[in-house]
Every structure is written in C-alpha cells, then in structure tokens.
Design a protein that fits this description.
The complex is a heterodimer of chains A (75) and B (393). By secondary structure, chain A is mainly α. Chain A has helices spanning 5-16, 45-56. The radius of gyration of chain A is 18 Å and the shape is flat. By secondary structure, chain B is mainly beta. In chain B, a hairpin with an 8-residue loop joins strand 7 (139-155) and strand 8. Classes of the chains: A mainly alpha (75), B mainly beta (393). Chains A and B meet through helix 1 and helix 2 of A and helix 1, strand 1, strand 2, strand 3 and strand 4 of B.
C-alpha cells in the first residue's frame, strides 16, 4: 500500500492545480508536430485492444496498457 | 497488501478526485465520427482464432458521443495443454460493448459496458473514466475504474455436443491512473499505472498439474489445478514519443508488473512510424517480454497434493517472448464519398515467438521417450494478421 501513496498523492496535487494560471512552456502554435496523427498514443483502439487480449491470455502480466477486453482466452 | 485496504483507499481517492474534476474549467473536443470494420486471424500453438468486429463512434452533440462495438471470435484447434489431456475444441466468443462519452469544459466523462459470452465463460464489465486536460493543455490526466464479474465453466462434453459444468464466479476490479505530458515541441511522455484485484475462481479448468506417478506408463499423472482465490497485481508503464527531425515518430516504452502470486514481468517495446505524404502511414515495432514463474507453479510436482496451491498453467511459467510487427495504413477518398469525409484501410502483421523456461512439451509422443521432467521445453511461434477499414463521417 505504501508504494501506491506517492502516485495517488501526485495525482491529487496535479488535479488541484488544474485551474491555476500556469503558462504552458510549449505554446499552442508550437504544437503542430504533436498534433500530427503519427504522434497519437493509440491510433487504432480496436486493433491494440485485440493484441492486448492475445497477450493477456498468454502472459502473466496485465494492465497499464490503456485498453482491456473480456473473456478468458482459456484454450 | 490487503485487497480490502487497497479498495478502501483507492475508493476514497477516486471520490475526492471526482469532486475536484467536476469543478475544473476549460474545453475539450470529442473525436470524429467513425465506423470501423475489423478482421483478424491468430495462428499458433495449435490454435486458429479468427475475429470479426464492427464499431461505430457517433457524436450526437458537441458534448455527447456514443460508441458501440460488436466482436466475434471463432476458436478452433487446441493448445498444448488440451493436446496433452483432452479432445480438440471449437468455440465462439461474442463480445458486445457500448460507451457513452460526455465532455464538459476540459473534462471528459466516460461510462461503458462490455459483455462477453462463450459456451463455458461469461464476463460482464462496467467501467467509468474521467479525463482532464490541464496546465494549458500540456498535461492530460485520466482515471478509470472497471468492475468485472465472470462466470467460469468447463465443457465436459465434446466440441459439437457440449456439456457445460459451471464451476464458479470470479470478480475483478481494475483501477487506472494515466498521465500524458507534453515535454517539448517534439516530445511527449506518458505514465500508466494500474492495480487489479481479483477474487473467486481464478484457475483455468482446461489446464492440469502433473505429478510423479512411477506406476504409470508415462511415469506421471495429471491432476486438477488449485489456485489461490485472490490476486492483486500492480503494473506501471512509462513511454516516450518523439517527433524526429524529419516527419516520422519513434516510441519507446517499458512496463513493470508484479503481483501477489510472485510473478514479475517486464515489457520493452519500440515503435517507428513513418508517413509517406498524406496517403500512407507505415509502422514497424519490436516488443520483448519476460517473466518469472508464479510461486505455486511447477512443471512437475513430486507427488499428488504436494502443496496447498498447485498450478501448471503456461501463463504462470517462466517465459520470454519476442514480437516483430509491421503495419501499413492507406488513406483513400480524400475528397469524400456520399456521407463519408475520408477513409483508411490498414493491414497489420505480427510474429510472436514464445519460449518457456520451465514448461515442458508433454504432448503425446506415442511410446514414452522421456523421463518425467526431461521433456523438451515448450516453444511455439504465432502469427497475427489484422485488416481493418475506418470510415470517417
């Protein structure tokens, strides 16, 4: 449980600071490259969800990949 | 770490953060309307699985959108476990999901339901999520909670005349915190943190343990797996994505996983994305995964009921695997057609090589060739093909 506390604390601090007047160090007009579709974390959610399902049925690890599926993949 | 304590504290934090999110101000945008048709084929380890899916994402207003997804898996063949003890299988899994999204200023709220049905397995998952843009949109923070209830059964009949025995239920609760951060004009970072707690019937009924039994022709016998009825896992993934000096992107990620069954898994992945004009997007990726075995796993127990918990599921064995994948996306209808503004078609192929370090290949060799425990280590290759079309409207 102790391992979780720093992460949760950081999340709360970030949330409470959400409406501050902090100035972004990368201005909106400087984000053209970041807006390119090739910079999306996950362009195809169905495809990546399917690959995650295949892996979770064959590996002991799970989670923290940003997608999830149902079923057991038992056989 | 006690499950009840984790759930209690995470529940309180989620409540506090929910209140904080509700008061946040500023404006987010829902994704474009799109429809997807998807086909996949998995072949490997004696199994063939084909999947078909259709999904529609539709905005009803600037603030509300809905997604529906229908997915069917057809499974045939049998894995190494089934080959060593049972007849082949033929099954189908149907998964339906629906999602509602609501945007208020800079906050996106999501609620979804997924139902998955097989002859011998049923799963219902409800989830809620919140996403918040902040710090001049440099930071995006998301939180999600999912609750799954599964009904686990076993087919004691044949592939064509099933006889299902329901063995029990399993409940799973998943907690996610995801953080995405713009670092420079060319670099973004992400951190994904996930905790999952399970309780109930967690074993795979189609897999068996084996133990030394000198009186038998093979020198061993098979028995039922007995898993702990609780499991808590923690996973954290860090990733960086960089826009190269020319128009291309490279992504690197690392995930660390551990659970109360003493499994520690590490995943490394790199991905290179290269567009050609505005027509093609080509992508290549490499993934490496390694894990140690669960503390109650053994390839060969010394005698029946040696320990309170016993498992010989290949997912629990020490293993590593490599994936090499490639994807090509072709954009067409640049000027639109009827109701569609544009469309893409994507072909994706992956090759996965699995190596097990303490899980042996005990399929039927005919006459006994090996002393129990000296069989060759199991390994296999799998290929995964996906083709899908996305139409934006």
């Amino acid at each position: 449980m102790r391992g979780l506390r720093p992460v949760l604390l950081a999340a709360i601090v970030l949330m409470t600071a959400a409406c501050s007047n902090m100035q972004p160090w990368v201005k909106p007009y400087e984000r053209d490259k970041l807006a390119d579709p090739i910079m999306a974390w996950d362009r195809d959610a169905i495809s990546s969800g399917y690959l995650d399902h295949i892996r979770e049925a064959r590996e002991g690890s799970r989670g923290a990949t940003g997608s999830a599926g149902g079923g057991c993949g038992c056989n | 770490m006690k499950v009840a304590a984790v759930q209690r504290i995470l529940g309180r934090v989620a409540a506090v953060v929910t209140l904080l999110l509700i008061r946040a101000t500023c404006a987010d945008v829902l994704p474009d309307d799109r429809a997807d048709l998807f086909y996949s084929k998995y072949s490997g380890g004696g199994m063939d699985i084909t999947g078909e899916s259709a999904a529609v994402n539709k905005k009803f207003t600037e603030n509300i959108a809905a997604q529906v997804n229908y997915f069917v898996d057809h499974v045939s063949g049998a894995s190494i476990d089934v080959l060593s003890q049972a007849s082949q299988i033929r099954d189908e899994r149907i998964q339906k999901s629906g999602t509602l999204e609501f945007v208020h200023d800079k906050t996106t709220y999501t609620a979804s339901y997924t139902g998955s049905v097989e002859r011998d397995y049923r799963s219902d998952t409800a989830s809620i999520a919140m996403k918040q843009d902040m710090f001049g949109d440099l930071t995006t923070l998301s939180m999600a909670f999912a609750n799954s209830v599964d009904k686990v059964g076993e087919n004691n009949g044949t592939a064509f005349v099933p006889l299902i025995t329901w063995l029990g239920h399993a409940q799973s609760r998943s907690y996610d915190i995801d953080w995405s951060q713009i670092l420079t004009k060319n670099l973004i970072a992400g951190v994904n943190f996930n905790v999952i707690t399970d309780n109930g019937y967690l074993a795979n009924p189609y897999r068996s343990i084996r133990y030394l039994d000198p009186g038998t022709p093979k020198g061993y016998s098979l028995g039922s797996q007995v898993y702990p009825d609780t499991r808590t896992s923690t996973a954290i993934q860090g990733e960086l994505k960089y826009f190269l000096p020319y128009r291309a992107a490279i992504t690197g990620s690392f995930r660390y996983f551990r659970d109360t069954w003493s499994i520690v898994g590490k995943t490394f992945e790199v991905d290179y994305t290269h567009p050609i004009s505005n027509v093609w997007i080509l992508e290549g990726r490499f993934r490496y995964y390694t894990q140690n075995h669960a503390d109650f796993y053994s390839d060969l127990f010394q005698y029946a009921d040696e320990y309170r918990f016993e498992g010989r599921d290949q997912d629990l064995a020490a293993q590593d695997n490599y994936t090499i994948g490639a994807k090509a996306t072709y954009a067409f209808l640049p000027n639109g057609w009827k109701m569609f503004k544009r469309a893409t078609v994507t072909f994706d192929a992956s090759r996965i090589t699995f190596h097990y370090k303490d899980f042996t290949d005990i399929k039927d060799y005919g006459l006994p060739q090996y002393q129990p425990g000296s069989e060759p280590l199991y390994q296999f290759n799998a290929t995964v093909y996906q083709i899908y079309m996305s139409m934006f409207f």
